[in-house]
Structure formats: structure tokens, C-alpha cells
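Pipeline run #58 for the internal structure catalog. This entry was flagged by the ingest filter as a single-chain record with no existing model, so it goes straight to prediction. Upstream metadata was stripped on purpose; only the residue string is passed forward. Reviewer on rotation: M.T. Logging verbosity set to normal.
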Amino acid sequence: MATPQTTNEGAAGRAAPASAAARRGAASWASKLIGVQGPLIGLVALCVAFSFASPAFLSFRNLLNILDQGTVLGILSIGMTLVIILGGIDLSVGSVLAFSMMILGWLSHDLKVPLVLAIVAALLIGALCGWVNGLLVTRAKLPAFIATLSMMTIARGLANIITDGRQIVGYPAWFDSFATRRYFGFLSLTVALAVVLVIASWIFLRYRTAGRALYAIGGSGEVARLAGIRVRQMTTWVYVAAGLLSGLAGIVLASRLDSSQPSAGLGYELDAIAAVVIGGASLSGGVGGIGGTVVGVLIIGVLHNGLNLTGVSPFIQQVVIGVVIALAVSSDTLRRRGA
């Protein structure tokens, strides 16, 4: 008579570990997909809070605004993610964005260069700025902070010199439509471009040998060199990629604004760093991911949008973003100590 009870107990005993394993597997998969779960929970909490604070927050149009406004920051943050995983920093992305944007307007309006060629030139200017950053870091042995700070000042100055500080207004309708025309009722070409870049960079970091090498370099550059990784070459190419993406972000912003402005991109480098750090990356290098960065970009976008809807001063918004960054870095430090 005791046999069925024993059998049931044995089945229950086997079911419990199986259930626990399933939960661990699901958590592991979520962790792999997003890169970090804490920021995702924070994003959901922010959305819930702002939905109560403002009825307009969850409207379809406002959600589209958040996506549109986050496109430029998202593109910049992809390049910043690569740089931070490598163990570097890039303070020049906002200024390179403005420089590339002004090159686009100057060539197409003042020199009457076909806009397609002007777009290519703007991308090349961004890549060139990134290449100089890479050379300053790898060849001149300057700290990344100093090298990119120098480029930030130079690029911002050149952006103003090109047109003597004036903005350039008025692009062809087909160029503006990249950011304004929506397909399927919600998807603009600029948002679609950002999504494609996110997917491509996620695949690169996760499945390509060069992508995995970035984590090795960020963990220990000397060990990576001894393992046969071309550290200087990889570092230079990462800064080139960050510069190229900054140029692309400038083109996207010009399409959204229908203008080129030398003051564009001010503070974007800090927002990009914040998005990457909030997403779980470590400023010491070797840790981070595109999934977490996307969540970080959305958190910053939701914060700005929600605070605007609730009438919070832009100056207070800066304080809030700073507090969020401090909390994100502190929680990351405590988690690593606990591990």
C-alpha cells in the first residue's frame, strides 16, 4: 500500500528539480537575450509610473515619438558599446555627429554636390575622425579620455568654421521622408535602420570571432595580445566604427530636423555613455552587450519623454539622469562584489 505514495513522492522529487532547471533555463535565456535583467525591470517600472502620471504617455503617437527620438542616440550608443567593451571611452561622438552633419549640408547646399555623394562624404568624415582617435590611442599612447576629448573640441570647432556658425536649412523631400514617412503605419526608415544595426551588432558581438575578441581585449589587453589578438588594429577599427556610426547618426538627425546645425549633438556623448552603463556595461571594459544598451537607450528616452509630459524642468531632468547613472553604476559594483 505504501508503494504508490513512494512513487508519487519520487515523481514529485524529480519534478521539482526539473521545474527549477526550467526556470533557470528561462532566466538564462532572458539574460542572454537582454544582457542584463535589472534595467529591463526598471524600464517596465518607469513605463507603469509615467502611464499613471500622464494619460498621453501610452498613446500610440507618443510611443512612436519615443522610438523616433531614440534613433539617433541608439545609433551612437552602438558605437559607444563597442568602445566601452574594449575598455575605452569616446567623448567625441556628439561633436563628430555635428561635424558630419555640417559637411553634409555644406557640400550639398554651398558646393552643390549631389546629396548622395554628400552623404558618402559625411560618413567618411565620421570614419576619419574615428581613425584619428584610434591612432591617438594606439600609436600616440594617449589615454582614450584625452584623445577623444581633443577630437571633441576639434570636431565641434570645425563644425562651426565650415559655415561660420550658421545652420543650413532645407533638404529634398525624399531625404526628409526617411524620418517622416511611416511604413505599416509606424515604421520609418530611420527606425528600421537603427533596428538593423542593433541586430547586426548583436550578432557580431555574440557570434563573430572579432566580436568576442573585443571582450578579451577589454578584460586584459596584454593577455589578448599574447593570445594572438591584434590589439592595436582591433582598437583602431573599433574607434573607426564609432566614428562612422556618429556620421550616420548625423545624417539621420539632419533628415529628422530638415537642417544641419553646428550645435547639434551637444551632450549626446554623455547620454550614449549613460545608456551603455545603465544597460549593464562596465567602464573598466570586458563587460556589456547590445541588448542591455538598447534597454538603456529606451530608459533614457522614456525618462526624457515622461518628464516632459509631466512638466518637469529640463534642468531637473539632468539631475534625474545623473542619479539614474549613479544608481546603475553602484548596483553593478555591488553585484560584482557579491559575485
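catalog note: DSSP finds 14 helices and four strands in the chain.
catalog note: The two ends are 48 Å apart (CA to CA).
status: ready for reviewer M.T.
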